[in-house]
Amino acid sequence: MNYSVLIPMLVFLIIIFFIGYWSSRKLASSSNFISDYFLGGRELGGFVLAMTMVATYGSASSFLGGPGTAYTMGFGWVLLAMTQVVTGYFVLMILGKKYAIMARRYNAVTMIDFLKARYNSTVVVLLSALSIIIFLFSAMAAQWIGGARLIESLTGLSYQSALFLFAVSVLVYVTIGGFRAVALTDAVQGAVMLVGTLVLLIAVIISGGGVSNIMQDLINENPNLVTPYGAEGNLSAAYVSSFWILVGVGVVGLPQIAVRAMSYKNARSMHRALIIGTVVTGFIMLNMHLIGVFARPILPGIEVGDKVIPLIALETLPPWVAGIVLAAPMAAIMSTVDSLLLLVSSSIVKDVYLNYVKPDASLKTIKRMSFGVTGVLGTIVFLLALDPPDLLIFLNLFAFGGLEAAFIWPIVLGLYWKWGNKYGAVASMATGIISYIALHFYNIENGNLFGVHTVTVPVLLSLVAFIAFSLLINRQAYDYNAILYRNEKQA
Q1: Who contacts 316 (Cβ-Cβ below 8 Å, separation ≥6)?
Q2: What is the largest CA-CA distance in the chain?
């Protein structure tokens, strides 16, 4: 076992646990457990907001799966990955102040709270909870696999033992700390990701004899590795363009990102987060994927793409530096999986149990349910991750596409289009979910329909369904200020 690598990693984990413990102490004295546990009391400043969005979005796919795929496919995948740079900017610009203001008016703690208040429909709530549970299990499994792969590469432990170690570590601090712990650890983890990416990129370039040498080695092996079309020439312009819907503008529909857009303290915090988030995301995405491609001439023949980053770090850095640098992907994975765990548990406890099973549940019962559901979910994901695929990025992207097809239009048009109603929302969600799953399996067997990414057609179909059903059934303009008048009367 390589203790020189492990000790810095363990120090990092101890810091994370300490933050979780500190947050749990603050949570214990909270007068509003639901808001604090699931939303951090809406107190996030600009830096923490930016970093929690970056750390949540920057996952095992960004630090292990994406660079691993770039190692296999070359610069074409780097170009594809760069469509993610504007993700944070789009989310905060599109949802912006109006989403946060409406969420406060609705007293919404989760994205489903927002949809429930906007559409006043039980079907919308249940469809939303079901979508989150189905698709986020896939995304969570991808993160747990990434965490286990990383520990496996560093320690020499078996994959199953590494998975168990990772699962216990995440469950402890998410269960005790809630959203505040997640947001604060995200800020630490985001900073670690930024520094770790820079150090590893420099080490890889030096080890490869400079950028020009690395490029020449790639051309000598396969000229397609340095073109936008992929090592086998199968990345078409249509596919690359449509991929932007999945990892760019479509991210607005991801519940784990959308919930962060309702948690900031004030407009200044949001504007700071816009700038910091975009710059940091661009830096990490570009450089991590470049590291994946540059690693190919230095360490040829790696069969499991998800192991490229840990192996190249161990090859090019002194062991103790590699331990610190590899805390970056560990940070990304932990910050994403803890957010997803919290999101699914909030869907079950807050959106289903408290809305429809026991609305008058005591605080003690809610706490027990929240901790218990989080623990059970973690155990289920652990079991799902026991038999991992070779490249986890595709598990993650499947989950992204499903959630975006389900939620993008009910959120965005619900916010900005007064004619949107519950019939449009239900039709849009059902169309998005069903067409996405059907097309996913069709594309596996027959290749991408129209040459575009799987998410493209379902997003367009769900838009048509939202508009058509809203206009055809019970057409009525929505008054965005009605809830404000009602709240003022009650006050």
Answers
A1: 200, 203, 204, 206, 207, 298
A2: 74
